[in-house]
């Protein structure tokens, strides 16, 4: 039995973030990870051949750019622990099969010039006004993304006190499609915005997804869009360096079997081999609400029942990793390469919606793809001149026919159809340029992180309004605490503010410090101590 102040189950980036803050606060911290490597959904590994570095899950870091963890370098990740981000001028591009292109640059004026050419002057000016509204609201929205959330009722009551608040409340309850329909006329511009939002595993017409359509343009024109130099996993690597610098430990090949509860308090973690690690002050768990019963059976039954009713995202992804003999070339020219690249052969909202409808029926649409060659912006990811392909194809967890159990048999066939679609847009994606391929299905994602990516949902759970703010994932668990189990705190993509790379473990750490009487502002002076 080993004694620590804080023990953490799971070395995904959120668990590592919370651990790093608690270690900086002077706590003796241990992070336990089931897999032989840390990072969870934010990891970069040589999956196919030596020297080719693939992002296992997350690829582009958008929402974390507003986090004070980076903006104010609260942990020293940028100044001391080796994290470096690549910020291209061209943030987001939509490319159509006929050669039509819409480019979104970080610079708003340049973007509006582009939109005037493709979507028309009226929509270009509408987009400028839309982004300005988004940027005006960003300070308030951003301040709430990386801290413990308000209870949903209190949040709604507060928002209902002003015109601006009521405007945002309205957005939060609508769909992304509702928002673009209200502000723009051009279907191409609507497609450009909505396809970007659906990267968050949101259907275009699902209620409660409208805030993504409103916030994303403001984010990309304010903070830009980026990936860490060397791959997504460099964020996790920098967090591990910070934890170790502040006296903490990260241990891999350590699978947790349960949270140890005594007298209604979480007091440690037990591994599957029986080894135990005790915690004086608290336990942090990357434990999805659907599996809370498995790890913390002492949780009150009503809390568990509500946790097991949490709604997962409507779809997942079939992910293609490939190594390339030579770097990819877009048919429209590599000056169109952006940090986020959408590839489309449909030109109307109606046609796009028909493709998303297939996901609801258990079918995969090979037309719903995104991705490209990561070496375009970061040549260090492969040997000189070679490429690393990262390709997303939206896909249901319950595949028809056969259900989720048929993914192992069918994922290669699904990937083949997606590859044929990619070849419409890339000039040199023939078989002779592909030196290796690895497919990860929705079921593979769940196997990779069974305590977090339930039903292949790499974003934790659905981003609907009823699962937002202090109700994400449930009203019981929205404060990061588990009722009836004192000292147990949750962390992961299923918690506020949502899935993706947010650095959301910061909010868990703030809540823990508040409960322990630790002055967060004093701990997080603007320079590393």
From TrEMBL:
Stretches assigned to the Amine oxidase domain: 15-502
Keyword Membrane in record: no
- Domain of life, source organism: Bacteria
Q: Which GO terms describe its biological process?
A: small GTPase-mediated signal transduction
Q: Which UniProt keywords apply?
A: Plasmid
The record's annotation in InterPro entries points to:
Amino_oxidase, FAD/NAD-bd_sf, GDP_dissociation_inhibitor
Any single GO molecular-function term of the entry would be: GDP-dissociation inhibitor activity
Keyword Ribosomal protein carried by entry: no
Q: Where is the signal peptide?
A: none
Pfam hit, one: Amino_oxidase
User: How does it associate, per the subunit comment?
Assistant: Interacts with COX5B; this interaction may contribute to localize PYROXD2 to the inner face of the inner mitochondrial membrane.
Q: What does this protein do?
A: Probable oxidoreductase that may play a role as regulator of mitochondrial function.
List the protein's name: Pyridine nucleotide-disulfide oxidoreductase domain-containing protein 2
Species, as recorded = Novosphingobium aromaticivorans (strain ATCC 700278 / DSM 12444 / CCUG 56034 / CIP 105152 / NBRC 16084 / F199)
Classification of source organism: Bacteria, Pseudomonadati, Pseudomonadota, Alphaproteobacteria, Sphingomonadales
């Amino acid at each position: 039995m080993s004694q620590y102040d804080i023990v953490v189950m799971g070395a995904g980036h959120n668990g590592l973030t919370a651990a790093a803050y608690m270690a900086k606060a002077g706590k003796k911290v241990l992070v336990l990870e089931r897999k032989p490597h840390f990072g969870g959904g934010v990891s970069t590994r040589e999956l196919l051949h030596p020297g080719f570095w693939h992002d296992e899950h997350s690829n582009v870091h958008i929402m974390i750019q507003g986090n004070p963890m980076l903006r104010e370098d609260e942990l020293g990740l940028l100044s001391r622990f080796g994290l470096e981000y690549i910020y291209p001028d061209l943030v987001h591009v939509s490319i159509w099969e006929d050669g039509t292109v819409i480019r979104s640059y970080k610079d708003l004026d340049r973007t509006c010039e582009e939109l005037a050419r493709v979507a028309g002057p009226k929509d270009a000016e509408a987009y400028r006004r839309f982004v300005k509204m988004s940027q005006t609201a960003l300070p308030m929205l951003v301040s709430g993304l990386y801290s413990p959330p308000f209870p949903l009722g209190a949040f709604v009551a507060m928002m209902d006190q002003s015109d601006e608040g009521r405007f945002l409340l309205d957005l939060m309850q609508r769909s992304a499609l509702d928002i673009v329909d209200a502000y723009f006329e051009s279907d191409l511009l609507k497609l450009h915005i909505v396809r970007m939002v659906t990267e968050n595993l949101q259907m275009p017409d699902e209620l409660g997804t409208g805030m993504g359509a409103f916030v994303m343009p403001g984010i990309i024109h304010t903070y830009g869009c980026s990936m860490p130099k060397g791959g997504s996993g460099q964020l996790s690597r920098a967090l591990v360096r910070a934890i170790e610098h502040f006296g903490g430990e990260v241990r891999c090949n350590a699978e947790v079997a349960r949270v140890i509860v005594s007298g209604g308090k979480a007091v440690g973690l037990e591994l599957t081999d029986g080894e135990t690690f005790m915690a004086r002050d608290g336990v942090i768990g990357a434990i999805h609400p659907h599996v809370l019963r498995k790890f913390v059976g002492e949780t009150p039954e009503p809390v568990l029942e509500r946790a097991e009713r949490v709604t997962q995202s409507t779809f997942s992804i079939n992910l293609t990793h490939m190594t390339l003999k030579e770097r990819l070339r877009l048919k429209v020219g590599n000056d169109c390469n952006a940090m986020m690249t959408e590839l489309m052969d449909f030109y109307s909202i109606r046609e796009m919606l028909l493709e998303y409808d297939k996901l609801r029926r258990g079918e995969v649409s090979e037309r719903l793809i995104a991705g490209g060659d990561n070496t375009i912006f970061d040549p260090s990811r492969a040997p000189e001149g070679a490429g690393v392909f990262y390709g997303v194809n939206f896909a249901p967890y319950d595949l028809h026919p056969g259900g989720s159990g048929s993914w192992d048999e069918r994922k290669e066939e699904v990937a083949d159809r997606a590859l044929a679609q990619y070849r419409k847009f890339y000039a040199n994606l023939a078989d002779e340029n592909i030196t290796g391929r690895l497919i990860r299905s929705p079921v593979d994602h769940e196997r990779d992180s069974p305590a977090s990516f339930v039903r292949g949902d790499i974003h934790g759970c659905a981003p609907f309004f009823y699962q937002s703010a202090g109700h994400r994932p449930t009203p019981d668990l929205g404060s990061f605490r588990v009722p009836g189990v004192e000292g147990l705190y949750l962390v992961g993509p299923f918690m506020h503010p949502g899935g993706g790379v947010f650095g959301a473990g910061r909010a868990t750490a703030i809540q823990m410090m508040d409960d322990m009487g630790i002055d967060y502002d004093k701990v997080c002076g603007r320079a590393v101590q």
